[in-house]
Amino acid sequence: MIELGRTFFTTVWQTKAGRISLLLLGICILVALLGPSIAPFEPRARNYDVSNKLLRLSPPSRNHWLGTTLQGQDILSQILWGARSALTVGVATALGVVLIGVNVGLVAGYYGGWIDALLMRITDVFLGLPFLPFIIVVLSITGRSTTTIILAMTVVMWRATARIVRAQVLSLKEMQFVAAARVTGASDLTIIYREIAPNIVPLALVNIAFSLAWAIITEASIGFLGYGDPNVISWGSIMYSAFSSQAMYRAPWWVVPPGIAIMVLVSSVYLVGRGYERIVNPRLDTQ
Amino acid sequence: MNRYIIVRLIHMAITLWAMLTLMFFLFRMLPGEPTMTVINSSLSPQAQAAMRAQFGLDRPLVEQYLSYIASYARFDFGLSFQTSRSVSEMIEGRLVNTLALILPSLLTAYGVGAFLGAKLAWRRGGGLDTAVVIVATAFQAAPVFWVGMIAILFFSVKLGLFPAGHIVTPGAFPEPTWRMYLSADFLHHFALPFLVNTAYQVCFPLLLMRSSMLGAIGEDYVEFARLKGLTERRVLYRHAMRNSLLPMATTIPMILGWAVAGSVVIETVFSWPGLGLLMIEGVERSDYPVVQAAFFLIAVLTILGTFAADLLYGFLDPRIVYK
Q1: Which chain B residues contact residue A263 at CB under 8 A?
Q2: Which of A270-279, B7-16, B158-167, B194-203 holds the top average pLDDT?
Q3: How many domains does one find in chain A?
């Protein structure tokens, strides 16, 4: 495990893009951990000026670096709080996606035959689900909470990972080490999880990174459409308030920061994944 | 090949049936009675029963399921809870509006992506290459609705160049006809969402084309074409680019389904009256027949897209053998 972490880190660190994105990702994680304690204001508190007037849509200033919302809330504090929601929802979804996807792919690819056919038909049904509309329908039925958002996103996202892993398993199971394990009398489960699965790990890690990037954008889209968890401050919900109150036309400082935060987080996750992908596919190195 | 198509068609039918069944139960899990919004409790019991009968909600579940499958197979989506109009009628124009926005964006994105991606790979490592790759990566990471809001702030609010939303000036065309899609008013409203959507869609084919071109440049046949004394232009367009188009081209149908599903957010930002916005409005008004039908059509486009992608792949790459 430590070995794996070290390889991951050194592989990504090799390129300039990899180093920059690792640093940016590190900052984002730090903000997610410390955000609420370094935020200068309560994110939902209404702020007043010296004459006790509500600071409605005040532009960036010394006190409020990124300005305030229509309700006089400090935008910087909201952004700092939002990092936590983006990363927890994203990481939980990515882990769920890879857990389901890898297992479905392993079983379908290894056993083949009717098990494979059945699992692939199920995957096809999920491939046909339009991701965002499906999530919105589910959330309108189950109610909006962080848990249901994570579950709904996992349900529509595991399918791609399953297909990729299955393709990899199909070629791995023809390898000699699998035949050798079979000769020694190893059971199917031992072969799947002891022999084949370790070879899938790099691919799974790349998939975690890409799923994480995608999950963060999707979480923001859900928030923007007004289906985010009402008790949680997320970058998507900040943009929803700015958009639905129509105040964004007068207050660019309200909409610009959450988008930039998403862009920084998503592109650094994506580039870290890209950097590590070179281990899975060394041909990429020539590029 | 024919057998392969038939097998794939059967798979597609199974997928559609499973999707319909999933939807049927999903929409019946809704809290409360689905008719609560239309069936006002102040109505007399007789009137309530009549309305239930009108929407077929008084019959047993199995019967409801069978008639639901039968009518969906005929693209008959029942009546809207909200307006009591035929859902098929409501949805038709919305589907056209969505496609009118998505298809031109996708075609432009793939055209520009193919040429620009090929050019960049040919001059890899140069200033333009680096700049475009950075911008494309950043754009891919930015939520498209946010780019839309920034575009509205800049082009509509600050510069006043384009309207901030809607498909035509409200009231300009009481009846949507083909004439509407050709009017200058439409194009004026179309420009901004089109640009934003295209800028977002172009990143994927561009980066994909660039990386498959980079793979092709190292191949023997490109080297051979050069040794034959062909011009650089000819080697680039006739040999390297042709072969690199394959991986990119096969993603078009899948991206179509994905773009239609993703259009929910872009239609919301630009108040574009398409399928996605109709679905969101339906959810807000608890108009389930409308939500169900919009969801179904989006899913059909996704499934058709995947099917077309599989066929296209075999058509474009003779090395693939169907069995």
Answers
A1: 138, 141-142
A2: B194-203
A3: 1
